[in-house]
Amino acid sequence: MIDGQPFKQLGEPSRGGIVCVADHASNFVPDDITLGIAPSLLEQHVAIDIGVNGVAARMAREYGIPAHLAQISRLVVDLHREEDHAAVVPMESDGHLIPGNIGADTEDRLSRFYRPYHDAMATWLDAAAPKLILSLHSFTPKLATSDEARPWDVALLYNQDDRAARHAIRLFSELRLNVGENEPYSGKQLNATMNRHAEAQGRNYCAIEIRQDLITTRAQQSRWAAMVADVAGRVALALD
Known about the structure:
This protein has 240 residues and is α/β, with parallel strands linked by helices. The protein contains five helices and nine strands, in the order ββαβββαββαβαβα. α1 packs across α5 and α3 (163-174) crosses α5 (218-238).
């Protein structure tokens, strides 16, 4: 973590612009927290949204879309859940038991990581007054606990406000990508960060999930950063 904070911010927001947030951009586990899992699991989707940090960093550096990025693994505390969600400190993920989280001090993790992350995001967004928030995630092509493949190149999530998502679905489709509404988790069930920081505040947002095998290399991340930045700019214009 940078300066002990569970987040980092890249770039400087300009009021009324586009910003990016990524709740699962890191697989960092503090030394004083023992999860009791194989180290290899920290490189998998249960611990981190693979490729997202690279895409977001390129958008901040090359396309002027500043980012607020998590610096703590979702296995320590899931920043994309409500505080009282049963899995905010997950005891299992996609069939993997997380034994170190059984009986963990949830309040300690909320106070150390979750609340500082969201409080800083709220302050950052208030100052930026963004035209559009990009909530960036990645997804595995196939969950271990499901027989169903997830064939999309990119998927959109939303809860009540689907305006930006509908524009983005059309625009990504025009790029000849396989695009749709994500399954098995839709934004109706999992939209905690955007419910709090966007829908509850009347802010436009677009929650985007990219299939992780498409953004594992630097070249892939650069390609997707360009596409997402372009689509986001056109979505923002369409919302005027």
